[in-house]
Amino acid sequence: MLFILGSSIGFFLFIIYDINSIKWQSKFVNHFFYIGCFLIITNTLGAIYRFSDAIEMNMISQVVWISIILSFLILLIFTLFFALPFDSTYVKNDIGRKTYTKGMYALCRHPGVIWFAGLYFSLFFWMGNPNILYLAIVLNLMNFVYIIFQDLWTFPQTFIDYEQYKETTPFIIPNCTSIHRMITTIKSQAGE
Asked: Is 4 exposed, middle or buried (0-12, 13-18, 19+ CB in 10 A)?
C-alpha cells in the first residue's frame, strides 16, 4: 500500500536526521525531521480519507472512538513537541546535554511510542478496515525500530547522562515508580 511506503520513508528520514545530529550536523539534513513528520501525517490522513467509507458504527460509538483518537493525538503532540525544550531538542542538535527527566519523560524513556500505538490502533478500531490495521502494524514496528536505534546509538552520544537515565527510567512500559515520579514532577512543575 502506497500509504505504508510513504510513511515508512518518513521513519527512514528520522534515522538520517539522527545520524546527522551526531555525525554531519548539516542544516539541510535537519529538515529531514520535518519532512518525515509531513510524510507520516499526510499518508495517515490519505489512508483515513481513502478507507473512511468502510466505517459502520452508530454515532455514539463514533464519538467515543474519535474522542479516544484525539486524546492519543494530543498526548503524542504534547509529548514530542511541548514536554521537551523544542529548540535544544529539534533545532540546535547540541551534543553533551543532559536528559530531560520530568513529566512524561519520568514515565518512560520513549513515552511517545505509547501514544503513537494508541493512536494508530484506535484508528483501526474506529474504521474497522484491514488496510488501517496493516498501516498501524507497520508504522508501530518502524517506530519501535527507530526508538531502539535512538536508545542504543543516538541518545547515548547526545546525552552525557543517558546511561543513568536508562537505569532509573523504563524503556517503554511504565512501572509504579515511574508513574509516581511522573505525577510528582508534573505537580511540582504546576506549582512553579
From this structure: middle
Q: Are 106 and 177 in contact (CB under 8 A)?
A: no
CB-neighbour burial class of residue 45 (10 A; exposed 0-12, middle 13-18, buried 19+): exposed
DSSP bridge partners of 159: 97
Q: What is the DSSP string of 120-145?
A: HHHHHHHH--HHHHHHHHHHHHHHHH
pLDDT tens-digit series, residues 129-182: 999 999 999 999 999 999 999 999 999 999 999 999 999 999 999 999 999 999
Average pLDDT of the segment spanning 19-30: 94
Rg of the chain, C-alpha, whole Å = 18
**Bridge partners for 163 per DSSP:** none
Question: What's the CA gap between 120 and 63, in Å, rounded?
Answer: 17
List the beta strands (DSSP E) in 4-157: none
165: its cell numbers: 537515565
Domain range annotation of the chain: 58-191
d(CA 74, CA 80): 10
